[in-house]
Amino acid sequence: MRSGRFRYALIAVLLTFLGLSSCDSAKDTKAAPGLSATVVGGEARPTLSPANYTGITADAYRAAQEIPQVLDKLYCYCDCEKHFGHKSLLSCFVDEHAVHCDICMHEAIMAHDLHKQGFDEAAIRKAIDERFAHLSHEHKD
Prior knowledge:
single chain, mainly alpha
C-alpha cells in the first residue's frame, strides 16, 4: 500500500518536471485541441517485453503490453507520428523509442492508471490530450 502511494507521488513529481523540461515549455499552455481524435491506430507489431527494463521504463512497457487497445488510440505528444511515422502511442513500445522518451512513458503510465481506475477510452483520450497537448510542436500558435 505504501509503495503504491509512493509510486503515484513519484509519477506526479516526474510529470511536473516533464512539463518544466519540455523543449516547448515556454509556449503558452492554454488548452489546445487534442490530437488523439486524429489517430488512425492499427499498430499490429507486438510490444517489447517489460522484463527487458527496470523502474519507470518497465512500468511504461507493461502498460503498453496490458492495454494496447487504449494506447493505439492515443496521439503521442513527442510528435513521433510526424518524425518517425508512428501510428499511435502504442508504436513507441514496439521498439526502444519509448526508452528514450519521457513523454511516451508518462502518457502510457497515465493512461494505464486511468484505465485501472475505470475510465473509458474517451475519458482517457481527453485526459491525455489535456495533460500533454501543450508539449506538441503541432500546436504552435
